[in-house]
Amino acid sequence: MRRIFAAIVITLMAVSCSYAGEKEITYNLGIDPQTIDPTLNYALDGAIVDANIFEGLLRTDFNNNPEPGCAESWDVSADGLKWTFHLRDNLKWSDGVPLTASHFRDGILRLIDPHTGSAYATFGFFIKNAESFYNGKVSSSDVGISAPDDRTLIITLEHVNPLMLYHMAFPSFFPARMDIVRENPRGWAAHIETLTSNGPFKVESWRHGPGGEIVIARNPRYWDADNVKIDRVRLVLIGDGNTALAAFRAGRVDYMTTVPSLMAPILIKRGEAVSEPSHTIYFYAFNVTRKPFDDVRVRRAFMLAIDRKIITDKIALGGNIPASGMICTNIPGANPSEDFRTEGGELIPVRANVDEARRLLAEAGYPNGEGFPEVTYKYSSSSGRKVLPEVLQGMWKTALGVKVNLVNEEWKVFLTTKRNGDFDIAESGWAMDFPDASNLLDTMASDSQNNDSRYDNPEYDALIKKAQVEPDRLKRMNYLHEAERILVDDMPLAPLYFYSAAVMKSPRVKGIYHSPSGIIYFRGTEVD
Asked: Distance between CA 427 and CA 44 in Å, rounded?
């Protein structure tokens, strides 16, 4: 009890510090990012930092659409395969070094270099010869990226990419300072001395660990610095939702999304919090290479034993919706004005089907759970969802008669655990990087570094490949709908709910843009 109280006091004291006479706000990031290297990061916490300290050829506007960023304009060839980006004049990095087209070329080549180990490497495979370079078949000079001068970047595509502009605003395609990166390829972004950026803010200090903070300050060398109205954002690392709520109510946090789930409905009803729309799905992943989850009947039994309506009504509160498919609501379908989820229909039952779950488990050789091995569900102790694993554990025990052990891990350890496939079942989720069903479905292709489940289905892979090269929107969406149905049938992931973010904001703050992907942008923020 004393340790908990001491941690709260230290955290609040840390949050209370400020810079006199300057305009600043405090946001609870919650988790100390594993990395903020935009090429290596694959977590939302790191992406929030990256989106504010770096910028791509394009940037995300305040309607979640791509708009000119470091590139002021671009031209596209008639066949859609050659894109020429024209950079703004006099671009600079935060340390004053000129920012050139070669830095963007270096950033993209680093993304698709197999030695980098980026989880998003396959995102760049639409570029000519990128996949061949990744597989060691050609050299970097054969990849379709060139910088004929400091202000011109030419990207030649392998096939038409309908999401080209979204990709160019995505952190994986941000520029790279290879003179810095080469000295410490996996750690340069963790040290203030080498953390050079090109966005509206730059990292001023970073105190790691729970109770720490990342301070980002206005970057005077940013091309649009005149429109950045605040001097500083303090990103505090308060992992416990109740502690964060106390800090907010004490006026020491201005904006937070780490609202305790059980408190969210009350706070929303009182008007203290609001529910923000989100393109995020929460699910758990099976390692399909481990017994007994190498059997699809076992995976489906575990999925059918869960009552998603009970979870959203009693546990994951705050406007969350029971998942009825792999792709969440509010993602455009074949008709951009229609919803992909509505088009695809309900593929996953919202309520538990215990009889069918038991039948499948018995068919797999475990009637009433007899002979079923002990398995483990791993989750992050930093997630704020400590009750949910216990509820899942109870539902599986009651419906199937099986024992599932629970193991929680610190956030950075947990990310590595999942990436290494060291789990039977693991907590997981996906915030859509851009509003297209392919953004999640592509991650389950067998060659994706984000495929923690080790799922491998040639038929599924073929559909994903077809969708990636298909210019006709209707045909492309039909491929993605078919791929989603296969994914549901094979069940390497078991969706639980579509997430809505409960947000608390100080009345002195305006202009924060909270995108549906969960990224929070501070460049338009103002304070009284």
From this structure: 15
